[in-house]
Amino acid sequence: MTTLATGALPAAPDTVAALDVPAYSGSRPVMSSRPELLDDGAGRPLARLGTAGRLVQFRMAQEAGKAARQLRALDDDAWFGLLRGAADRLTAKLAAGELDPWLRALSAAAGLPTRRAARGIRTVADDLGRMDEILAAQSPDGTVAAYRTGGGHPRWSWRPAGRSVHVRVPDNFPTINIEWLQALAARRPVLLGTSARDPFTAVLLTEALYAAGLPEGAVSLVHGDAPALRRLADQVLWPGEQVPQDLPPGKVKTYHYGRSRAVVGDAPPKDAWQRLAREAFAGCGRLCTNISSLVVLGAAEEAAGLLAEEFATRPVLPLDDPAATVPAFPDRGARDALAVRIEREIAAGAVDVTEAATGVPLRVDLDGRAFLRPTVLLVDPGSPLFGTELPFPFTAVAHVPRSKAVAACAGSLIVSVLGAGDGIERALAEEPGVDKVFGGEEFDRGYDPCDPHEGYLADFLFKKKAVLPGAGA
Amino acid sequence: MRCPSGSALRPITDDDVRRTVGLHFDPRHGTPYWLERDRRLGTNALEKVRTLQDAVAVLGLKDGPDQMHFEEASRRTPLENFVPRSVLDKGGPLWAAQTGGTTGPAKHGTWGARYWADILDFSDEFLDLHGVPRNCNWLFVGPMGPHTTGRLVVAFAERRGGMCFSVDLDPRIVKIFGEEGMTAAYDRYVQHIWDQVAEVTRAQDIGVLFCTSRLLDMLPERLGTEALPGVRAIVHAGTTMEPETHRQLREDFFPGVPVVGMYGTSTTGISWQKPFEAEDDHRVVYVPCQPHVALDVVDESTGTEVPFGEEGRVRVWRLTDDALVPGFWERDRARRVQPYGVAAERYPWPWLGDPYSPEFTEGHRVEGVY
């Protein structure tokens, strides 16, 4: 472990005054007599969170049921105009610095560089402003009208599979809020549950939406676990792979989990390493689209070295440094546990290529915060870390023979293919365990909400029904 | 609302203290546990305790090994050790109470016939103050068996001219579900409770619902808002009730129906919510049932009472013939409340606001059924 700056306590969090972050029952903020306290992981308070008991959650679910009809009655121009209005409002507040206290709290709570957190919120606001485009891509007839009318097919009508959806929002990076915004844009009332380290982004979006005229009850928000919402919502979107036992399988769709990989052949483009590194650092390395493993068909040592050189240009910096891209771990114990996993692999023969390139050890303490230095690890393809997604910029690199490359990519969300030939791309596209394949100039396409991503969300929220006669009724 | 002039409650006097100390610390006829502690600590309570202040200084349990000794003795030794010999010799019923058992093996305590009768008297007083109707049936949804609440509520209903239907629940198995992360089992158990409630309410004419606060919070979600059309009063006990929940119950789900809180423990006693007034701001404030029980809200570091309006740890004193509990440090925290409003003159001792158990509101346990 290294300490790059001294001082027992970090400077930045001391400047953060505790914010009141209410729950929302529709547009009504809900605090409580004894709010939950959110701290920065070192005991310094950042926010008081409104708690919403089960009765409040019951009301939220009731209001959501009523709002469903209202949302479907809005014409398309008014609806998507409202969403654009909310996006513009949020973007303007960001630009004016009005959200700075929120950004500082988010940074301290989640360990995100402040500027990256702001960029994440701006990105999600941008996506909110183009929801018509995103939803049209998912519609069976390519129009946004289908969400309202059921489409014009003579034999079936595309109808909601539920009146409300409960969405648990993870706290890895603000852009993850795109999931529930898509559900809302599809005119589905949303019952939100925020996660421990980011109660902020969803509240900012909710406030912007109501300020833009969102119908009452279309969004409600609870901080933390929301057992009543899980029960009462018709459908549930749950992040990651560990679904609560009380959710029946047909009711829930998991989202934004998974591991992304890249396959590198003999002739990668010149700027390949720079672009791959950018993909590894997107969202501070906390996204399911980050390239966590590099399948190298040729010399893995050389590839790891080139990638490590790019990683080395993105050092650990204080979270308030505008150039910072590396996240901190608010939970020091979690940081140490991850470090031990990596150190075990190194003890077993893996090579920490970035240490060689930078001279910086794996564990870094900076301004009292715990970091892991961005890491390129040269491993054996049988290593448990090859194919594992870690919540910071981390890529495991291994040589894999061409004949085993497709098998090595099974269980991937995205596979980027660079200079490996069309045959591998075709084989990966046929592999059921691979969700997305990007090659050619688009190998670093990453996440675009217009693309299917674990399928289209609309396919879960809607179903085709035989409604005869008059399927369009 | 006006309070009637008579009350079964009154402030604790020094006479009450001397009488209780004389009973429990009588060298020949006193209480074995307290006599042994008196010898062990050299407190000489019989000589030194004349006033309530003396009792606080001399008798009060010290948080730490002293209280732990008392707790473990109440778990592991015969209950008779905590009852004066004179009371045992006199005979008469003694209710052997057990605590919920959610913080370890259950502790034991007694409720003598006199104390039981006093509790029923002042409970009637408070139920009348709140407008809880007489001559109607009650439905109790809570722990029966060894838990005092169930037996108490049956007595409330019968004294007030109704029958008491009941749906039992076992908080100890819920504790196991929580500790072992058995969320599906918890959910199934809760559904089992509500299925039974639905059966009773379908067939029976229920005027008063008594329910744990936690389950009450789930009622509309599990049974819908029309499930109890004939209910004319709701009484709840258990964990904290948020002001917003209280407001919703009164205004949204059961408009015009009294919603009354009861706070206490199985081995000490109960307190009733003060009569509801607008200035409560839907906070739930309790009136300790002096002279039987006093509830202090104290600063843990100094052991002294916190100023009115501030939060501290609840410390309970029970001064009754069959049992002495000298300043037991509850796990709960609460706000110390200066009496106000229509009942201030009638109950002029410190009240208790918004009590809660930190262990149930913090951490990651599966929520309970209390």
UniProtKB/TrEMBL annotation, chain A:
Gene3D superfamilies cross-referenced by the UniProt entry: Aldehyde Dehydrogenase, Chain A, domain 1, Aldehyde Dehydrogenase, Chain A, domain 2
Any GO MF annotation of the entry: oxidoreductase activity, acting on the aldehyde or oxo group of donors, NAD or NADP as acceptor
Keywords: Oxidoreductase
A Pfam family this chain is assigned to: Aldedh
Residue ranges of every copy of the Aldehyde dehydrogenase domain listed in the record: 97-227
Name listed for the protein in its UniProt record: Aldehyde dehydrogenase
Organism: Streptomyces sulfonofaciens
TrEMBL record, chain B:
Domain AMP-dependent synthetase/ligase: 196-316
Pfam families according to UniProt: AMP-binding
Transmembrane segments: none
InterPro entries according to UniProt: AMP-dep_synth/lig_dom, ANL_N_sf
Protein name as catalogued: AMP-dependent synthetase/ligase domain-containing protein
Species in which this protein is naturally found: Streptomyces sulfonofaciens
